[in-house]
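Every protein is a chain of amino acids, and every chain bends into a shape of its own. Below is the pair of lines this work produces for a single protein:
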Amino acid sequence: IERMGRQPGRLHAAAVVSAANRLTEVLRRTDEEAQAQAGAATAAR
């Protein structure tokens, strides 16, 4: 019963959200760079 009263999710929620935001930003930047490179390769043809 003691464990049911604890909410470890609240303890780590901020860290999880922060990591998710950083990961999202990295993926977004990587995708933008890949699209820019693909566009440059297409323009060079």
User: Anything to note?
Assistant: The radius of gyration is 20 Å. The chain is about 90% helix and 0% strand. The mean pLDDT is 86. Helices lie at 2-5, 8-44.
